[in-house]
Amino acid sequence: MRARLHGPAELVAAVPYLIGFHPRDSLVLLGAQTGDLGIAVTLRLDLADVGSALARREVAAMLAAQGCAAAFVVVVGGGRAGRSGPPRRRMVAALRDACDAAGISTRAAVWAARTARGAPWACYGACRCAGELPDPACSTVAAATVAAGQVVYADRAELERLVAPGDRAALRRRSALLERLLDRAADGAPVTGRAECAVLLERWVAASASAVPEPTDDDVARLALALADPLVRDAAMGYALGRHAAAAERLWLALVTRLPDPEAAEPAVLLAHCALMRSDGALAGAALRRAQRAWPGHRLSALFQEALARGIGPDELRTWFAEGHRQAAAMIAEGGPA
Asked: What is the C-alpha to C-alpha distance for residues 136 and 140, in angstroms, rounded to an integer?
């Protein structure tokens, strides 16, 4: 999302809608690729992660890599404002120096206790301006976010709960079922072909068009086996780019919570892809963390995480992966077993 903001209070109020959730104890950097207030790049880090000079240089380098000429610094939490000004002043001053060294001017630096109506805010500049935040839900950025169909979560913990594993007993039951199916395949039982796997996914995406899907244990296991084929999974990424994107996202989310580890990693990375294609970096990040917990070192989710860390946007990612899923779909259409 590109946004044009005016004044420090409006800048802070926009933060939840730019990152997808209300942050706590966070540093948020808004990068502008032009000389005005048009926000093109948004980065959020825990305050604990920007305490070193190396970390601050790396943050500045990320903005520079995205062609940012200016940055706006927002600190949320991290202490209380006092007579000498807002907290974390040394950190902000050091971050300004790192940005200057990277050729990025710091246009404004603002602190707020939290991103809620009436929360106190204060400027780090010589002006010493301060006040209370307006209702973030009434901002122009909030209106644009709602119009785009994006969700703003209460906090990062809510995102993590959204993609967390479901009922443990059900997960153990499905894990045992998957093991039986894999044992049968190892004993020479017929293996479902890639074309049949693609048809299975297509059927379930269609079933998810108007409601949250409710697959049985057998359905979940067979969908997991389909996505275990990298070619089938790569072809399924194409659902994020068409009219079935919302339905596919519902299906991937259902599978993320219903599948045991490590199988949950595949729908998790597909969920991240859907989220990124509609610029929901917060959900994408949560899904990628879920994928890595399910399958440490999972290659595709690691690639996505690197892209997010570098601030690569949906347009670039769409170009990256479009050819890949087209080729995968074409290979499946040519036939042949998995």
From this structure: 9
Q: How far apart are CA 174 and CA 39, in angstroms?
A: 45
Instruction: Of 22-31, 122-131, 279-288, give the lowest mean pLDDT range.
Output: 279-288
Question: Does the predicted TM-score (pTM) go above 0.90?
Answer: no
Phi, psi values for residue 42, rounded to 5° = -125, 130
As a whole number, mean pLDDT of residues 136-142 equals 82
Q: What's the farthest any 2 CA atoms get from each other in the chain?
A: 75
Token pair recorded at residue 281: 């970096």
**Cis ω for the linkage preceding 16 (within 30 of 0):** no
Burial (Cβ within 10 Å: 0-12, 13-18, ≥19) of residue 33: middle
Q: What's 269-320 look like in SS3?
A: HHHHHHHHHCCCHHHHHHHHHHHHHHCCCCHHHHHHHHHHHCCCCHHHHHHH
**Which residues, in sequence order, are CB contacts of 318 under 8 Å at separation 6+?**
241, 277
Tokens found for residue 25: 């104890």
261 CB-near residues (< 8 Å, 6+ apart): 165, 293, 294, 295
pLDDT band at residue 242 under the 50/70/90 scheme? confident
CA distances from 184 to 179, 225, 295, 313 (A): 9, 13, 23, 43
